[in-house]
């Protein structure tokens, strides 16, 4: 289980600094509102910009942290955050936490006794989460909080249950950064974040129709009824999976865990970024699971299969609680994908390749993507902006028994709306073979290609295997692409007529 080390540890890197917002709490049950920059007036409802609802079981912040907007209503204008930090108060909250991320658990414990402010910072749950995950070799047993989990592994005889009950509430501590982490973990998805459903839905269409209307034009579609015969749809629940998998371990973020231990975590955890079980080798570990489903007919052509055991990772079992998911990304190696929900439901937001989502900043070479810390944070700070766009994202809620097709190059975000189980596979068909080959031979392929140990040589291996298995296919596809490109440049009949008349007019003049 958890192996504890008393050493300096690097802090986890955040992809993007939080966008600070002033959130003011009002004496209404489970109601939080976000205000404009001017001091809010709780008596004037017309000034309210947005309302957020907390989950019914949401606890108060464990250490009494309040949003910075509440400082306006503090008669003394005293923020114990600043007095407790002393000369370090000029540092941002993010920088303070980055520094504390270098400390060992022992040093964090000592620092927490210096002042109330340091007590709050030193007990910030994400710091203890990093300590647990960075010291986990054989998984961990979650004990209600990350700090309790660490202490239980390091000192098994210590009564860890007392850690949560004896937490110190600090008065007059105001911090948007610390509060938002708690807020994102306890917010309900707003109805307006779920109501837009503009994806095309199809049931019972032929493979040819799918290729013509969706795969060739590279458009998403939600397919209904195509997995109704799956054994997984009937059997795959928590009890069945735990029984089938036993003591085998699956990939959960940076650690490997037994399913039983993961469900123990997912039942208890209430955090901004819940750990997601996302395992690419599940069918090799438990062959029975690979037999409980079959690839829908629309996605049977998978050309990476010519590589045999050397093919990149391509299929995953995905398990996660409500709030877990994947922030904006493009699927690896320029592949397309399909995702089938077996239990639960997922909210999808997709942007076409030429439209980068708001709040997302890819590097010029595409190797890294900077984005908000969590999915909920993106909805809070950036989702509303898409309403004003002429070219709106494709959105839907995908429920059990439904399959979504994600074309290559599309940005997409996924969040589980409840405890969910799903299967996803990435694939290469003739429609996107040239895109994949172009991707694999990029100059920085060693940083872009994923899912394989041999990133540098994957292009040559794949191209040679295709030419051996399907002689002439690549040349044929290149020729068709050139013809299509030439056809697009060729002026239409009416454009030719217009140009001719314009030339004649110029000559006579």
TrEMBL record:
One of its GO terms (molecular function) is oxidoreductase activity. Keywords: Iron, Metal-binding, Nucleus, Oxidoreductase. GO terms for cellular component: nucleus. Its cofactor is Fe(2+). It is found in: Nucleus. Belongs to the JARID1 histone demethylase family. This is JmjC domain-containing protein. It comes from Camellia sinensis var. sinensis.
